[in-house]
Design brief:
- The chain is of the alpha/beta class and 442 residues long.
- It has two domains: 331 residues, TIM Barrel, CATH 3.20.20; 104 residues, no CATH class.
- The protein is 42% helix and 17% strand.
- The protein is built from 17 helices and 20 strands.
- An eight-stranded parallel beta barrel has the order 4-5-6-11-12-15-17-18, surrounded by five helices. The protein has a three-stranded antiparallel β-sheet with strand order 1-2-3. It has a three-stranded antiparallel β-sheet with strand order 8-9-10.
- The longest helix has 32 residues.
- Bound molecules: zinc ion.
- The site of zinc ion has 8 residues, from helix 14 and helix 16.
Amino acid sequence: MEFEIEKVLPNGLGRVGTIKTAHGEIKTPAFMAVGTRGYVRFISPQELHMLGAQAMLSNGYHLRRQAPEIAKAGGLANISAAFWAGAEATAEHAAREARNDGPERRVAQEAAGYLPGSESWQGPTLTDSGGFQVMSLGSGLGKVVSMEKERHVTNTAHKERLAHVSEDGVSFIDPFDGQPDFIGPEESMQIQCQIGADIHMAFDELTSLADTYEYNIEAMARTERWAERSLREHIKHRDDLGYRQNLYGVLQGGRWEDLRRQTAQTLGKMNVDGIEFDGFGLGGAFLKEDLGEILRWCNEELPMNKPRHLLGLSHPDDILIGAEMGADTFDCVAPMREARHGKIYTREGNINLRKYSDAGEPLDHDCDCATCKAGWTRGSLRALWRSGDIEKKAKYYNLASIHNLRFIVRLTEEIRVAMLEGCFDAYKHDFLTKYYTNADLC
Ligand SMILES: [Zn+2]
């Protein structure tokens, strides 16, 4: 995998670049659409391309049972049409899908006007290791909280969680069927290499904001040992599907500068028989107030010439500070999940459709998405959302998801242009001033 850097900010960290994978290029900074189970809910592949999404992130944990079938098909790029169509690779997959979306997804597909099975995601893909999913089973912890909320965060004792960490990996109870299961670095690499995304994440242990410094030292050391095991196993399988699959090492270390710098140095130099990581995942649960500093510590130590993915964040201020501090790609399920709950992103702050029953005004006065271009207003979209009619509701999920995802994708496109034109600071100030003036509308 190649990573070309076109321009670097005066702070020496933020940059504009191009990641070149076997399935296409990603112009960075870039926001990836989340298709946890191999497809993006309520948006077709064609619509994803039209709204500017350059890559899709799926999850090794959620796709682990289908991984052998995906490998037989030649990788995720060859089978995503089937996932989009709801084709059932296994009876268990069918049951999971039924629980996941119900009939609404099928209706949404028809409402969106595409034929099941006719389209697949042709662009680059990335998979997460599944570490975050198994580690957070039962813990209820998010990725980012504000100072205000931190007081309410309590760490669930490991014995009370559904997941138990050992040197080998993580044993857990599958919340779907109640059966015991296990994922360690080797299993995660085997699963991800069968799924065949272009970029994989090493298996890591996510700590929570409530974990102590001492526990973070222990977990970080374990994550580093797991990183080396991940790299060793990945090398065995990375060419199995006939194209190069790449591996990112994942940094933990909580909110402590010494730990973050130390692990960045360790992972930045780590190699197995001379083979190093292709890039790096910036992991962990962050206090919003600390995010920029933590990224600066990590990225000042990591090799400049390799791409970095900031895992699981999408608020505009997080994306802006992330890009400024040297993160190249981003992903988060929030834009689409929040759309389904009536939260619509606008340049003047987010709005909740609950409050716009008869409003004829646009969703956002400055949006170029297909939903806005088709003339949907706050009132007309709200009517679909609040309708008891399943077809109307599915149409709402489609239209609102497109709008919110386009909003974040466009933000990264504009950051790229601002960096190239040398006006990033002014762009950031202007965007945040407008966006957060009315940010409490929701
Ligand atoms: Zn729009």
